[in-house]
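Structure tokens please, single chain.
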Amino acid sequence: MSFDATLDRVLHRHAELGAMLAREGGMDGQTFAKLSREYAELGPTAEVAAALKAARDEAVELASMIADASTDAEMRALAEEEFQALKSRIPELERAVQVALLPKDEADEKNAILEVRAGTGGDEAALFAAELLRMYERYAIARGWRFEVMEVSDTGLGGLKEGIATITGRSVFARLKFESGVHRVQRVPATESQGRIHTSAATVAVLPEAEDVDIQIDEKDLRIDVFRSSGPGGQSVNTTDSAVRITHLPTGLVVSQQDEKSQHKNKAKALKILRARLYDAERQRLAAERSASRKSQVGSGDRSERIRTYNFPQGRVTDHRINLTLYKIDQVMAGEALDELLDALIREDEAARLADL
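Here you go.
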């Protein structure tokens, strides 16, 4: 189907849905909800498609006015000025429509489960992992999202071995999905007397939060063990067997939860993380099948892929996938400049997918 035909189809369908919803009579609740959802999803695409058609129509009218010998000089000058402005705007609108028509990632609108783990580098890696978790928390708060820590395994020295959080809000996974991978840090540790720069790393995984309808888990596939919680210094540690370890027998995945004093709450949290990991594993499997035909994607989502370097002595953050360097490491770590990296990654992914089409 041609681009213009697709434009007409989008606008026609959006108008058709609007008329159907306005009538509403004789429509059951399920059908009404389904059509309402389609109408809402099609809305942004229809809006930019309508803007493109209006701009094209206006350009035709202006060209006609410019070519008309009876048009006075002042009017022609104004028309030419507007025509030049439209000539630069129309390609932008065309690209916006193409991006809007790209196949949607069904997980984009989902909430996310964020997992940050210390990698190579000992205590320095653990400290950096803790800083990354705080960076994402600040970013989430700035966007009006809810950030809930589900599990933290700290080192007792301000660092963490592992931190897991749920981030809830609009389009969370769409914004954060390219953060998965190895984040490398280069800096002089506080304990380094010779002033030498050390390199260490932390691993980030961003998983779309799965619903029951996304992943069905059979109880017989689970082994659930309860045990007594343990923690540093014996503080805030449960004295009852309320900690839960769930093993998914078909895959061997193991999830433990001990933050809550209630065994029931720990089990619910562990199941949420397990469901997200199983859903993500299926997404990774499908992505691997598609990657043979799509080599231009931004990152593979592989947790072992080094995606970014944070160099503190030079004050820079470099994303290796798109060769983008920002000399504002403090603003990035504060969550303030993270959007500059995320926006660039999203644009690169859109460009790669458009090229594939």
